[in-house]
Amino acid sequence: MSIENLKNALPDFAKDTRLNLSSLASDETFTAQQKYGLLVACAIACRNETVRAELIEEAAPHLSAEALSAAKAAAVIMAQNNVYYRFVHLASNAQYKTMPAKLRMNVIGKPGVDKLDFELWSLAVSAINGCGMCIDAHEDILRKGGLGADQVQAAIRYAAIIQSAAVALEAGAA
């Protein structure tokens, strides 16, 4: 079990992260596709090879090929969009808000999985990447789609725990 491998790889000073990873393993907030897609998208977004490898190994048996690809696509498209829209949001010059992005984003319209699942993964990745505009946009779609505040908050908890694991591994190696 790969969450176990990841927990075992964490340094002793990351005991809380170890405990939090255990809570993810037993979490039943989401459907299997939502949960394991969150693991994949967040693992890729945190940019740590060990976290990515272990969590994709954990998730792969629970996801269809389409869902695994869509979770990866959520991390990739948000890597692009979070940089662009964070700039637009933070730039003092309001002119950028009126300009077309001119970025391909077709996967958002046709992710190959349930739209709300893709939005959930995109929200979590946007939290890792720190894009307030994207967080607001994805959260709005999720809430309108019927997800409650508990589910939105749980998705962000996944992002926080997975990011914490990546930072703990890097700190342990330093």
Automatic annotation (TrEMBL):
What are the BP-aspect GO terms?
A: cell redox homeostasis; response to oxidative stress
Query: Carboxymuconolactone decarboxylase-like domain spans which residues?
Result: 96-170
The disulfides recorded in the entry are 131-134
- Keyword set, alphabetical order: Antioxidant, Disulfide bond, Oxidoreductase, Peroxidase, Redox-active center
Keyword Disulfide bond appears in the UniProt entry: yes
**Oxidoreductase as a keyword?**
yes
What EC designation does it have?
1.11.1.28
Drop me one GO molecular function for this one: peroxiredoxin activity
Catalyzed reaction equations: N(6)-[(R)-dihydrolipoyl]-L-lysyl-[lipoyl-carrier protein] + a hydroperoxide = N(6)-[(R)-lipoyl]-L-lysyl-[lipoyl-carrier protein] + an alcohol + H2O
Query: Could you name the active-site residues?
Result: 131 (proton donor), 134 (cysteine sulfenic acid (-soh) intermediate)
The similarity comment for this entry is: Belongs to the AhpD family.
Question: What name goes with this protein?
Answer: Alkyl hydroperoxide reductase AhpD
Its lineage reads: Bacteria, Pseudomonadati, Pseudomonadota, Alphaproteobacteria, Hyphomicrobiales
